[in-house]
Amino acid sequence: MTAPLTPPPPPNERPSYQGGPVPQPVGAHAVGAAPGGSHDPYGTHGEQDGPGMLTELRQAALTAVAVALSGVLLGVLWWKLAPSVPLVGEVVNDSWVVYLKDSEGEQAIGVDGTFTLLALAFGALSGVVVFLLRRRGGVPLVVALGVGGLLGSLLAWRLGVWLGPAQDVIAHAKDVGKGVTFPAPLKLGAKGALLAWSLAALVVHLGLTGLFGPRDPEPDPWPAPGQYPSAPYGDKSA
């Protein structure tokens, strides 16, 4: 007499798992396992985290100082390249009066324009240099670039004024004599030019970072159905 055969399971039910190692899904080595068997949930051993916050702040501070100190060169170039505004001194009723020799001249606009163009060039150059030195970028570095550009512009402005002609135009007119043309002191009429350096540096640096900066690695897609290897289940014999 033979034993009754065990009926097969319904089509929608799977046999229960009865032991044995769980198979590792395809691609698991890139998601949850590190080489050598150690577990690394990020798969990068911490390399993608970049430098610590303290290191980033230190690098940002050095960047801001270096950019600000380069304002010395901007101030010297502004002093050398800015057009001269001619003044003339006259004596009226025993009093010295100073006026523009060419009332319709555009030298004053040229002084502001020279500073603005130089600041834009310095900003673009500093943005390129900072990107080449540290491609990873970061918020502290971007803030330092903007702050350093503003401080560099302020330093260049005050240095150019100090290097330029004397600020006391009456005393200068008396020194050169009546009716003699002399240059006016350097003056930055458009104070908005002080922001040109920072804006140019930020635009160039962010543009280069967006185009050529490092990209975050894309996570591996989940394995499609049917990619799991077959695993031994319980004995199906009667």
Automatic annotation (TrEMBL):
Transmembrane segment boundaries: 60-79, 115-133, 140-159, 194-213
Ranges annotated as biased composition (Low complexity): 14-37
Keywords in alphabetical order: Membrane, Transmembrane, Transmembrane helix
Region (Disordered): 1-51, 217-238
Biased composition annotated in UniProt, kind: Pro residues: 1-13
Record bears the keyword Membrane: yes
Protein name: AAA family ATPase
